[in-house]
């Protein structure tokens, strides 16, 4: 019975970190999505833009998120000119730094996913749009984006799940989300397996809800009758 | 992908998962009975807690504990191998049999004694605060005054003296340390506590003014103050010892290895008597933090 009490108490403590985990995920995914759309459009519409975006994607996809968080939080704070700049009140906060790193990282992955979505839009659909006299913006809004997003959704769902798990790195910069709290409990009780089991269960539930939401969205956006 | 941190290797079937869950519910896993041969042991350290232990530029482990540990091993006529290991999983890994001893500035505390055994202490150094010289906290009262946590009245007076200065400030501390316990026990309603994976990280945040003070043992702050940029810091506040801060740092050893504890005790006693610990302490800390005889 004492074991169950311990698991219960651990679970309660870990649940205290859920708002931070969810908040970090939601915030970084929202900022990341806007950035990703801009990056994908830049890549599709100009040659120098494409080179710039592929360099960005190369760097952020090719280095560990752990290092990115570390550089943004501890790295930036090393320079006096950064500390004197208008950005410092923002970069001073661990929450903002973690959000920035997660969002930049998410944008790199999501822009690649969107690129795939754009590539999958049938040429005929675009030509049909042009034929009826749609402007570029209207064509983008009414034809290209809806089709591209629909194509990209399954892969983007994967990315969302990865983002939930990526927030576990925020404890590196003193944020006590679920994994951070788990580490703190372990260092007090030295019972790593039980605590990580509880933490794992929380991530599983969060991601279950997320996959269901994406599946519902997929069904809604799909062509009628499928 | 190399992004998130996975928690578990893939569990292949539900039956294995169920057995694992049952094993967890049944209590701490029993350490497999190994043949007790101590002619060769593995000692774990962090490699990130200078000058106790650190990585040299060429990647080798160096420091006070490496020198002392090798000296103790020579006295015990055994061979020792060092490995670097994360601080926060140090004790579970010891109990899981990944290595045989911990030498990582780990203080002997009642809480840790529930889970592992310790040798007699090989260092004892007080805990204090570190702040920027330019900070208003640089004038914290009771600086340099020794306060024992075992003396209730003195402790109450000391906390009352520093509370006005610390009110509403943010203090950085390494997670799962005796210093964290001190903050949590005596000052949790006064300061905001921010926890770090390593002590070096709270030094970085102190330098960049993200936190108002850091708390750690004076033996650690010696290394901070001697690093480039160390002259911007100053140690302030009382020198805390005793109570939940423990009896000093000892070698952490599994409870199933009392013979190894006895071997270390004898070697540490001898190293204390012939002045080895004192000499090594002066070499690495520039001050004597060897435990009293």
Structural description of this entry:
The complex is a heterodimer of chains A (226) and B (293). With 226 residues, chain A is mostly helical. Chain A has one domain: MetI-like (MetI-like fold), CATH 1.10.3720.10. Helices cover 82% and strands 0% of the residues of chain A. The N and C termini of chain A lie far apart (50 Å). Chain B contains 10 helices and 14 strands. In chain B, the strands form 3 sheets. A 6-stranded mixed beta sheet of chain B has the order 9-13-8-12-10-11, sandwiched between helices.
Per CATH, the class of chain A reads Mainly Alpha
Q: What is the approximate shape of chain A?
A: flat
Cα separation of the termini of chain A? 50 Å
- Residue share in helix of chain B: 25-40%
Quickly count the helices of chain B. 10
Characterize the largest beta sheet of chain A: strand count, sense, and whether it forms a barrel: none
- CATH structural architecture of the largest domain in chain B: 3-Layer(aba) Sandwich
Query: Which chain pair has the greatest contact?
Result: A-B, 37 and 35 residues
Going across the major beta sheet of chain B, what is the strand order?
9-13-8-12-10-11
Rg of chain A, nearest Å:
21 Å
CATH superfamily of the largest domain in chain B: Periplasmic binding protein-like II
Query: What structural category do the secondary elements of chain B indicate?
Result: alpha/beta
Query: For the terminal residues of chain B, how far apart are their CA atoms?
Result: 54 Å
CATH level-4 homologous superfamily of chain A: MetI-like
